[in-house]
Amino acid sequence: MMYKGILGFMAAFLLATAGLAAPLTAAENRECRKLAAPVSGEARKYSVTADIYEFMAFPDIPCAVYWRNNELCATELSAFQFSAKVFDFGGGGEILMTEAYFVVAAPGEPLPLAFADREEATEFITRSGGGEILDYGQLLDHSFD
User: Fold this and answer.
1) SS3 assignment, position 85
2) Is 127 inside a domain boundary?
3) How many structural domains compose the chain?
4) What is the DSSP letter of 53?
């Protein structure tokens, strides 16, 4: 009889707290993690690197934004601001993340792309048939869900 009471209490507790867990963000649903080495090949166009006391790489821009917004302390945030680099999809090479323009929601591109030049980002949107351009500040507030 005592076991039924304990089981009943546990069931009621689980039902009462089931909706309290926050839903996972898009970055949490994917494999959002720091990498030990830079991303290479085709996936490089989505990646981010930073030097925050040690080299860090992130597989994509939403993951780096998630880490920046949720996982870094104030000192690490400052280092991220001055060292985070993205791949310039328009011209190749790396550019500071704070100086880039980001194309989100472009047809055929599952993740944001970075451009050093706003005009190149605009041309990309025209060629691809859609998307939105965000600057760094807008990117940090953008929901990737």
Assistant:
1) strand
2) yes
3) 1
4) S
What domain range is 117 assigned to?
25-141
Look at residues 79, 93, 82 and name the one whose alpha carbon lies nearest to residue 44.
93
- Is 137 part of any domain? yes
Give domain status of residue 10, yes or no: no
**pTM beyond cutoff 0.85:** no
Q: Are 92 and 101 a contacting pair, CB within 8 Å?
A: no
How many CB atoms are located within 10 Å of the residue 111 CB? Answer: 20
Residues 6+ apart with CB under 8 A from 120: 90, 91
Residue 92 lies in a domain: yes
Residues 26-54 have pLDDT tens digits of 444 457 888 989 999 999 999 999 999 89
Pairing of strands 48-51, 94-96: unpaired
